[in-house]
Amino acid sequence: MNNMPKIKIGIVAVSRDCFPESLSVNRRKALVKAYTDKYDAADVYECPVCIVESEIHMVQALEDIKGAGCNALCVYLGNFGPEISETLLAKHFEGPKMFVAAAEEDDLVQGRGDAYCGMLNASYNLALRNVRAYIPEHPVGTADALADRIHEFIPIARTVVALSELKIISFGPRPLNFLACNAPIKQLYNLGVEIEENSELDLFEAFNKHAGDERIPGVVADMEAELGAGNKKPEVLAKLAQYELTLLDWVEDHKGYRKYVAIAGKCWPAFQTQFGFVPCYVNSRLAGKGIPVSCEVDIYGALSEYIGQCVSDDVVTLLDINNTVTKAIYEEDIKGKFDYEQEETFMGFHCGNTCTKKLAFHEMKNQMIMARSLPVEVTNGTVEGDIVPGDITFFRLQSTADSKLRAYVANGEVLPVATRSFGSIGVFAIPEMARFYRHVLVEKNYPHHGAVAFGHHGKALFEVFKLIGVAPEEIGYNQPAGVRYPTENPFA
Question: CA-CA distance, 149 to 351, in Å (whole number)?
Fold first, then answer.
């Protein structure tokens, strides 16, 4: 996937002038060595021009890391640090930044750095300058420990950089009776995200212009190879290939000065009858290429998917928090085998937008719900299968009706349980899901769409949401048993 930035972190050591500069120099070298011994050396750049003790040094370091192509910054307090110069460096660096500090070593006389103290002043001065910086849960540590903290910063930094260069392309207004996916776009601009809203008629015109495109047979062959034995609707592949090329060309022609793109697409009610198919499989393929496509013109759903892709460095999907698990399935396949109550399980579903890489099996079919009221032949194009079991993170970033940012994050898993249903679907389990559903999803007015990242990424997502401006109290999560939600009835 190349629809995301590569992060290069400039490591700049700072020193207060009444402390030995050698402390910061030697500790910086040790930190960089600890990182490159464990991780990719290309992730970091050691700023060699100076140890920042003054505003002049700050300017020199800033120019150096910019010249080295750094798009993220790590300010390292090798000792107490100069609170003015170090926070000015963060203020003037255009990109995500983190602060960490050195733990003490054996010499507590001439070799004592007091960075534990300096981190407090750094945080205070960052607040004075209204600078958002990432400070990890344990910001003071040995070189080896801080190397891990810097590595944890990479997906966070990648997401922040990507959002500043992202354009979301949408097609068509939301379907009737889908007001839940409607949200003010002002917060997109506040996040640095561009939005291009188009009519589905514009998309239809572009699609028709791609009729007979000489690239269609090649895309069809690629689809056939991907679907394999699941290619149950070969007659629709040429149209799907034409649509895929339409979207990819649109992205290239319309992303403008932006580097990265996500799409909020239209998929019903008129789409099927006019295009002659449903777009689900194409949406799944674009997600596999690193271009998330949300259903039902869900702009914040597309944004959430893209954030999840940047954090996980993997394919994501967008699903309805859809239906409960039946008692029969729970009793037969879950109870006594997994440590979940029935109300902690549910099914996540969409018609067929999930990449085949994330399906345990897959088949090209028609969209059953739409086929109940339309000719079957115009509802072909959905890829169905049970979602692969394993760890997942369910999350969403949303603007409220009064244009405030809000988010939720919950780590869980897809259980290795047959769904006995249709679509791209899985049996999900999240600890304390019933309470989370009531006091976060319902109480905070979230729509039914949730983004799914594969793996447990709640820690990084929580930090991303804070860093981009979501108030910590507006980030919901599944409270453990015994920890009451503010709106939860204490007598229930």
Answer: 39
